[in-house]
Each structure stands twice: as structure tokens, then as C-alpha cells.
Model the fold of this input.
Amino acid sequence: MTNNWLDMQHSKVFLIEGSNAAENHVMSMKWIRKAQEKGAIIIHVDPRYNRTSAIADIYACIRPGADIAFLGAMINYILQNKLYDEAYVKLHTNALMLASQEFGFEDGVFSGFDEATHHYEMASWSYQTGADKKPKKAHSLDDPHCVFAQLKKHYSRYTMEMASQITGMSSEMIKKIADTMVNNKPGTILYALGMTQHTVGVQNIRCYGILQLLLGNIGKPGGGVNALRGEPNVQGSSDMAVLSGYMPGYLNYPAHNEPTLKEWTKNNGTFRAKFMVNNLKAWFGDQATPENDFGYGWLPKRSLKANHTVYGFFESAAKGDLKMLYVIGQNPMVSNANLSMTFDGLAGLEMLVVHELWETETAAFWKRPGTDPKSIKTEVILLPACYFMEKEGSLTNSGRMVQWRYKALNGPGESRGDLEILDAVFRKVRDLYKDSTDPKDQAMKAAVWNYPKEGMAEAVLKEINGFDLKTGLPVNGIADLQPDGSTSCGCWIYAGCYKGGKNLSKRRDNKTDPGGMGVYPGFAWCWPGNMHVLYNRASCDEKGQPFDPAHKLVWWDAELKKWAGFDTPDVPVATDGPDTPNGQRAFRMTGEGVGRLIAASYKDFDPKEKDKELPRDASYTPKDGPLPEFYEPVESPTENALHPNRKSSPVLKYPRVKGKQPIGKVADFPYVLMTSSIAEHWLSGSVTRNVPWLNELAPEPLIEIPLKLAAKLNLKTGDMAKVSSARGDVTVKVEVTRRMQTLQINGKEVTVVWMPYNWGFQGLSTGVSTNYITIDAVDPVAGTQETKACLVNVVPAEGGHHA
Amino acid sequence: MPKTTLIDTTKCIGCRSCQVSCKAWNDLPGEKTVSCEEGMGYQEPRLLSAKTYVVITDKLVDTPGIGPGFKQVFIKRQCMHCEEPACASACPVTALHKHPDGPVVYDKSRCIGCRYCMWACPWGVPTAEWTSLDPSIRKCTHCADRLSSEVPQYHNGVALTGEEKTKWAAQHLDPACVKACPSGCLKFGERDALLAEAKQRIKSHPDKYVNHIYGEYEAGGTTMLYLSSVPFEQIGFPTVQSEAFPRLSAIALGAVPPAVVGVGAALGGTYAISKRREKVAEAEAAAHSAKHVEHAHPEFAPVPGNLQSTSNKVLMFLMAFGVLSFLMRFALGLGGSTGLSDTWAWGLWIVFDFSWIAIAAGAFATACIIYVLRRQDLYAVGRSAVLMGLLSYTFVMITLLADLGLPWHFYSLAMYAPKHSAMFEVSWCIAFYLSVLALEFAPVPLDWFGLKKYREMWNQYSDWWVVFAVAAFVFILSHKLLWVALAAIVFSIMAIMLKPKPGEKKEPIMLAIGAVTFSTMHQSSLGSLYLLMPDKLSHLWWSPILPICYFLSSIAAGIALVVLVEMAIAKGYKRHFRINELASLGKLDFWALLVYLVVRIGDVAYRGELGNITGAHGIGFLVEVVLLGALPLLLLSVSKLRENPQVLGWASALVVSGVIWNRWNAVVYGMNLKGAMPQLGPLHYRPSIIEWGISVGMVAATIFLFKLGVAYLPILPKETEEHSVAAD
Done:
């Protein structure tokens, strides 16, 4: 989230697309309802009318996977009709920067594409730069070479009619939603997995960024792009490098072409290299010295050619390349797409460790119904873990708020907290490497790992916060971190959570709210630096004064000569005023310092930097394009109306494993299946399906189909239906409902059906796993599977007609 | 100040956190449910039950305009906690009662398990633990038990300050559902304040809300207040009268104490007048030496019969089946042994009880006729009628034992008097009546076995027992000493005045008066039981004058049954057919039936329900009043016809059937039951084999014991030679 939960009360409009907030982020409704009471309008765009639609003022049905067409049409409508916030766009975005002359887009492909390798060379996606290596800027938005013009040109193809053809949404509805967004500001966008589980997931979210920048909604209270993240610490684990490409704090993990820290810095900039050094100091302590690159060399490097995502794991395991898997807090044997592939992966392992509350489907894969346990060679070890109430530690919510959670009771039997188990495993493994001289084992030997048995979680949080190594005291914030190895920090964005030697995540001051804006600075602690709204500098004009004085959050205090506010001002240096370059870097985490309409390829060089080779910072550019372009899902019922020759994303590689990843044809599988979790069961259900109270609410898997399909197939609510895809079939109960609709797409009727995926063969409530039929094509950037759109066929199950 | 929960359905997101938190707080188990039932959507479980106090219902309501053309509305349903709860007023032992803070709460230690609360609730809220052998009534308590919860000293590891503790306590008082609600749909507070807020919300957003706060006036006002964006009838809320339901039966039950005094006095007066007329007639007869009409009391003697007869074997088999069923009932519990459910809380047994009590009215009707109205000519039928009544009522009580969920809590009836519960009235009234019946019958065995000492006691105390019973009954019911004193005085005066003069034979006149008084009360109060159910019982049967109809119909049915029993005895024992006496009873029954039918049909017509005599209920009604009402009335109207044993028999059978049919309709056929909240019904009821077993077994036992009585006790009049010949 750029903003936070409480901040939603300031929104005047909510665009909820790709999220079923009312079901899956129930607590969001507390704040959405507050805003609604003040007159806020809720727009829900979703292929399925669900409980969020029920509370929305405007509900629009959209075809799964067609979001970019819809959002592109809104962007186009706003650009063509000059409905954007011009002052904001000029000041806080890269709109005026001149795009490279080489930049182009033709027939569904951006410039720089290599068809053979599915790879873009990004050089042409950069700016025209001056002698100072900074982007040249146009004087007006009408300049035909500026980013703004490129944006306009790119989206000019997204007419209302085109979008309506692709999405199934009426032009009137798209226009109504766009007008509502334009006329009600600030507005926020809420999304979740409905937007990310696509092969264009990253670009879907990029659309939000562009839309909100054009509307001037980023950095303002009640604005922002807000990812509603999972309750069990999805935000916290992302922050701490759960994703394969990252170090803690979203630093890129060293790749095979970055053997030295300097090489890494060339790609990532000196700004981040400082945090890398602090991270290495936290890991290797005294053994990390300037001489040995702070132990950078000990880190195993990831190969850019290999697939280190979850899907890569199972594919490697199936081939026998991956020998052992350690699974914590995840149940891929239910939650992964194309479960047959996952099963093959698990069966291909030599050893599987699962560390869980219950024997999940993953832990029990070897006795899956229909599987002969004797045929499985994998050794499976199940370690009993504690439930969240049985251990202490911090949890980071979607609003980046780190909150301490106390232990309420002891875990049953021999169960132990995750930290305790990992600690025991690490110490044992380190013992085994004690005498090794193999270079690859040195990281293990050099690691500082001496957490006390009592207060282990707090000791880890302290390490994450970081220390001034000279005094031994915790650092007070990011500004304290030094590039020379005199400080350490386990995750730079968390620096300051232990400010003054106190665990700030334990603070519970829910009374002090100086500006009345719902910031409550004394309640727990937000990263970075207790900042509640990211990019909040963008809520101010050129002079550093709030665009909306009635809802001010931060401002430049000319008398005190510093940035002040009810929230921590998001500026590089608090005393650098609007008259300095730093005072205009509202988006200081980008190289340009402004919001990026086009995610240009750009490295920012600091003239003051001694080593001229090294950039200060590098902007992030998704490898599948600098601008979102609509591509059909891998399995789609129709052609790409924008560029029939380029149906799906050109960067996409699928199938990755021949024979295991078939692509269904619309002739065989005529209906579009979208899947999702439900309010009553948490994801794979490994916890919730063991709670009878929840099983009562959602007892079994099902398929929701529209009336028209039911009539055609002669299916009634309560009948059984066989749902099949190119990957398999499952038989489930049918719910015929008006909440599902049949759409008109490119002149043809397209039927969308929906299934929850939360069931498996273990637990108190068992049922077939929908993911046997879903597709495991993934987003080329994020590695997220396309479980929101695949093709299926539905037929009445034999003997499934209930009298 | 009573507390309220305001439920703004426009804010509900259907997350069902309230359902789960309710189960967590009340420690209720998860139910086994199935998904995908037409029109149910997210409604899981479908209904309230002993395991589920709260359910979110899911409705798709049509909405015109841009968009999908419909709107999904979620509605939290639970006990409404009426300001004047029908369930609590129904409860005979105050197991359900209104807490001063608003909740309607339940105390199992008092409950006898009669399940009248379930029938009384207009929304079908109270449910029973059918699968338990120790079943409770279960429903939402509005978390009354949270009111007394302890305040924690720490929260999240930080000690709470005094102010925080107060705040915590205030927050913690919220019902579990309110506390869990994330969307602001539920708000807990003072009723007046929340009512004002609800009105303000409607006023501020007239486009968003319908102008109706459900619960403001419904059933006289409820603790739960609802706001909605669509008319309430579209989201499953029944239209409920604004008058509090308890008031429907309060008047009828409030009339009982004065009625006791009035009926007693009237009977005493009637007796005095009849007696005086008799004396005058006797004197006149003596003066004019005219032929003296002597109604010498007949002699009674046992009529030995063959106990091994086929009919007795059949009866014994049925009794054995009854005993087995009775045992099965307690081994399996109510849910396991009956077809009863949260919809059909009452069934076959109640039909039997109601019918049986109505037709056993013969005992009090004949007592009244013989002793009060001085129709000594009918004396011969008296003993059999009383024995039949005694046995019938005894077996009604035994059936009730099976029917009650917690019969071992019977003593609650003596400990916790409700304000006005028809069930309470009926229970005590029948208990007292049974004692009177027993005393009425007592001289037969006492004389026969020569227990002179006890017979002497009977002579001395039976009248005073009536005085005591009546006074005690009035006290239990009213707790008003004025009425108790009045009843005691009136009945004492009668007891003294009607005391036999020295040398005069003691007549059970006081017992007869007591019997009639108690019968009048409970026969009518059985009708009062249904006064609380205007929404459930078809208005062809429901009426504000149900008590009067029930009383009147019981007389007609009771007399008719006496006729039938007499005929059966004559046939079974090959005895003289006393057609004159039976025809006289037939004539009396004609008048009883006429009065009843005029009142019954007149009432339906007066309430404008004649136009609603349609459909299945209409046919049922017509069968009742024409085939089983007007037809026997016609047959009994002509003396020639009623003197024909065949016709008299058929007419009596029709009358009895008519009243049984009437009771069956009230309990089962005329009920528009939709079941537990949210009342998705109708659900069907099929009595189980065990239910039939107990009921049929009890009937068999009644007949068998009657035969046994006839065989060993002087129940039937001695046959003279003349009679025997006539019989041949």
C-alpha cells in the first residue's frame, strides 16, 4: 500500500478492481464504510458479482484478464479529454521528459524485442539525456517527443468501443467509471490477487500507477494504489525477501553477472549499495570487511537463466535437479496452479521438510487419494509448528505497519515456533559444516547467528533494525546507516523500528493524532521511518504547500526551514527545501525523483559521486514493457483485438515443460474459468478447513455458472458438474447464479464461470482441488500464475443429477 | 435502560463474522452443512437451530437501471428480543424471561421442555436440542452473559488504566456479534438513542433507506432494530402486528380468576334452583297424588367379562407397544424418537391430548347434567363417564410426560409462576381437575371394597378439598388475595349450604361443581394456548374467542362421546340399550352443538373470514362445520331420528370426529408453519412410529382399564330382567 487502512476514510472514490475486499480483506470495510458514510462512491469491477459488489455503488462486470483494455480506455479518455491534473502531472511525473527517439511500439511489440529469446533490449526505452546524463525536458505537454505524448499515442488505440469489445463492459459503464474517478478526488484504488494472478499482472498494476499519477492521486491522503495483502504477514515476508529475486528491503539479489559488489552497484546504484553493505554487516558481522567486499563474495549468485520462482522449484524437482525442499507456511499441493506438475515435483524430491500446524496436502502428498505410497521415494519430514497465538513476533500489515504480537498460550505437544525450529536447524547445519573448507560453505560458517533462547524474536527484530557498530546501540533510522561498514542493518527499510533502543512495534497510542488525519504516529511503527503515506511530498505543490489545505499531511515550514507534517515527510533530506533538487523529489525512490508514466530505462548519476562509473540509483523497468499493453491470457476464448498477430505477452515463455503444460483450445474448452479464495477459508485452507465453524459456512467446493449456461447444459443448483481443462478435470457441485454473467466479447458470447480453490484431501473439510485444472503460465516479471483466467469445459457429471 | 442492537442491513457485507463469533462466545458446535441449494446463496446454515443462534441470510433483490439488474442483500437474523416477548409469556415456568437490560434469556433449570415458546414466537426463533436426552431451548441471548464478564487487567501486555478499564468494560458489554462486525452494520446501545439514530439515518439518506424501522413497532417493539434499503417483505421479514402478542392471551387468562368465582357461584345457584324445583315438583306430586315419577338410583354391579378375549389381546398388544414406545422415547430423545422439529415443535401427541381432553369432557358434562341440572334420570351413565374421564386425563398426563423435553423439572410449575401463561393455567387446572375426578370416582371402589373409614373421610373432606383446590388454583394464577378470598368464600358458602341434612344421602355435588369449574377453565384455556399464534394458525381456526369455542365444543364432543361409550358398552356386553336416556343425551348434545356451531360460524363470519374459505384449509373447514357439524346437528334435531340408535350413534360419532378434526386442524392442518428463523418452510411433519405407539398405546390402555374397571367394580348399572329381554 502506498497509503494505509485508516487513510481510506479520506477517499472520495474507491476503484476496487481485482479485489474482493469485503470477503478477503474484511477489515478494510470498516474504513470504506466510514468513507461511504461521508459520501464516497465505491466502484467494483470484477467478472463475478461478489460480496464486494453487493456493497458497491457501481458494479461493472469485466472479462477475466481484460483489465488493461478497460484501464487503457480510461487513461485514453482522461488524456483525450484533458481530465488529468495538469499541475501534478507536470510537477510530479516524468510527463515532460523526452523519451528516446528510438522508442517505438508496433503490432503488439515494443522496440528492442528479440523474438528468439522472448527478450527485450531496453536501451530504446530510455530518455534523451543531456550532458549531465539527466533527461531532457520539454516545455509543454504538447511536445511530440515527451513521455506524455508517447503515453497519449500509445493509449489512443484504447477507444471505448475497442475496450468494450475486449472487456465485455459497455462504453457507457467505462465512461461512467472514468467520470466518477475524475470528478471525485482524491480517489484510491484497491487491488489484490485478482489483478496480479495474470500473465500481465505487473502491467495491470502499472496501469493503476499511471491512472493515479494522471489524476494526481498519489501521495495524498485518501489516494494511492493500495495492494490489500494477506493477513499472515504477506507484507512482512515480502519485505524480508520471500521473493526469489530479492534481498531484504527489495534490494536485488546478486545475479551471476554481478560477481563483485561493484558490479552489483553498477546495476543498482550507490544509494542501494549502502544498504547492501549494512545487510552484509548484519549477516556476517566482524567478518564482513571493506577488504572482502563485506562478504559479498560468499553469497551464492542466482542465475538469470534459471527459474528460481516457486514454479521453477517444482519443475526442477520433477527433473531431479532440485533434491530437497523446505516448506513453511505454504501448501503448494493445494494452492499451486496445475497441481499435477506440483505433485510430480514433490515426487521428484529426495527429501521434503514441511513445518506446519497440521499434516497438509503437501506433507501428505505421498498418500494422496489414488496414489500408491510405495511408488513415492521422497522422504517426508513433518515438523510441528505453533499457531500465531502460540509464539511472539512482529507482523507487518498492508499499510507497512509493523506490530508486535504477543504469545497468548503455549503450543500443544512438541510444537515450536518457526523461529525456534529454524534456529535449531541452522545451528545443527552449521555444526555439520564446521570443518568444511569448501568456498560455497563459507557463508554458513561466517554467519553471525547467536540469538538468545529467551526473547529471540525481539533479538531478530533488533538485528533487522540495525546497530551502530561503534557504540553497539540500535540505529535510529535510515539516515544513520553508513556505507563504510560502521553500521549494520538487516533490512534497511526497517531501520528505526528500534529507535532509541525501544521496540516501537509494541507502541499502542491510539489517542494521539495531531492532525486528526488518522495517522496516530505513536501506534506501532510504519516503514520507512514511521511514514504512513508514501510519496506524501506529492500532496504538495512546487512550493511545498498542500494542494488541499483542508487535508494536509506534510508541508515545507519556511520558518523552521524544514519539512514538517503530521506524518513523516517523504523527502530525501528534511532540511532540503523546495528550492533544492531534493525538495522536488516526491518519488525519491526512482532515479528521476518523479512518478514514472513510462517506466523508462534510466540510471541516475550523481555528479558528486567519486566513481563516475557508478550510478546513484537505477530506476526499475519491468522486462515485459515500459508501458502496459493489453495481451490476452494464455488460454483465451478470443483473438487479441488490438493486434491479432500478438495474442499474449511476447516475453512470456509457456509451456516451460513440454507435455506437462498443455494449452487448451477454445473449441474444446469454451468457457473462461476464474478462481479465487473465499472469505471463509484462508487460501489452501490448511488452517481454516480444520475449523468446524468455518466449514459450516463454506462446506465444499463448487462452481458458479450463469443462468444461460445452466439452461444450455440443463444444470440446476445442487447438480454435479465435471469441469475440465487441458490439464485435468474435477467434479463439483453447481451453483447457478445471476451473479455470474455471459459477456459479449469481440462479437461472440463468452461465458465466465468461477470456482474457489481452497479445498484438498486433508483436514476436516475435504474436497477436490480446483488447481488441478488451472494454468501455471506465470507473469514474466513476478512469476505469479494466471489462476484468474483459463479455459475449461463444463458438462453435467454422470449420475450427478440430483433428484 | 434496555439495550438495543441496530442492524443496518445496508452496511452488511455478509462476512458472517457475527455467526462465527457467536459460536465462539457461546461455545456452539459447527453444523454439518451442504452448499448449493436453490436460492440459498451464502446462507449457511439455512436456519437458526440449537447449534446456531445467528444466521446471515442472502437475498438477490431486483433493481432497475445500469448494472447487473439486481442487488445482493445480507441480513443478520437472530432473536428479536421483543419488548413484550410472546415466548416468555407462553412459558409456564418463566424459564424464558425478559432481562431488565433487554435480552430475553433462558434458565434451563426451570424449563420443563414444553416447547410452547417455539410455537408462540412469531419469528420462529426458539429452537430445541432435539438430539439431546436432556434438551434445552436454545436461542440468542443478546450476550446477556457478557454483562457480568470480568474486565482484564492487561491488554497487549500493557496494564490498563482505570479509565481504560471502564472503556474496555463498555466495549466488552457489546454482544459478541457486534464486537466482531467489521462493517459498521451492527451498533449496540440504548434503545431510545439508537431509534433516534435510525430515524436520523433514514432522514439523511431517504434515497438509501425505506422509511421503516423493523422492530420499532413490530410485536409491540423489539430490542433488535433493522434498517433496510428494500422493503422488508422482500428480504424475508414477515409482517407482524404492532400489538404485543402477550396481550392476546392476557385478557383471556386474566379472566380466569373471576370466571372461577362466577362459574362456581352460577353452578351453585343453578343447583339450588334445580333442587328447589325438584322439591316443589315432589311436593306437588305428593299433594296431587299423581303418578310419582320415581328416578330411583339404579344399582351398580361389576360385569365380568372374558379377559382373554381377542379384543383384549389386541389391546394388550397395543399397550405393550405403547410401553415400548415410551421407553424408546426416553432412550432416543425427542429428536430420535419423533417426527418433531424446530418447525413442528408440537405434533401427534398434542393432537391426542387436545382431542382427548375435549372428548373426555363427557365426565364433567354428565356430572353437570346429573347433579347440577338434577337430571337424575341420567344417573346410570355417570359412573362410566367419570371413569372414562379419569382414565383419559391420566393418560393425557402420561402422554405429556413423554412429550415434555425435561419432565423431571415438573416441580418448576410449583416454583416459578409466570404472569399469564395459558400453559401454566392448563397444567395446574388439569392437575386439580384430575384430583377432583379421582375423588368423584373414589366412592365406587371405597364402597365396593367396604373401606368405610376412607369413605367417611371422603364424606367429610371431599367438599372442602374442592374449596381448597379452587382457592389454591386462583392463588397460583392470580396471586391476588382478593380473588382468592372471593373464591374461598363463594365455594365455602356452597360447601356449607349444600351439606347434606342429617339422614340425607351425601351427593357429590361440590365435586361436580368443582369438576365443572375446573373443566370450564382448562377446556377454554386450551384454546387460549393458540391465541399467541395469529400469524401461524389459519384464521379459519384462529380467533380471539378461541377459548369460548374450545369450551363449547368440548361439551358437544363430551356428551357425544358418552353416548358412544354407552352404545359401545351395550354392544360389547350385550346389554340393554337404554335408548331413552341416550336420546335425552342426544337432545342435550343437539343444544350444545347448536350453541357451539352458531358461535363458531358466527365468529368466522364476524371476522370476515368467510371469503377465505378456499383451498385446502377451506375444504378442511367445510368438512368440520358442515359434514361434522351441521349434519349431526340436523340428525340430532329431530326426536324421531335421535331415538333411532343407528342415527344417534352416527350423529354422535360425527360430532366427536368434528371436534377431533377441529383440534387436529389447530395443531397440524391449519398451521402455516415456516419453521425456524428465517422461516424458509413449509416443512412437513410425519408422526413417527413411536409417536403413534405411545398415543395408540394410551388409548388402548384407557379402553382396557375401563374394561377392567367394569369387570371388577360396580361401574355399570345392574340389568333387570325386563332389560335383558329387551336387549335380546
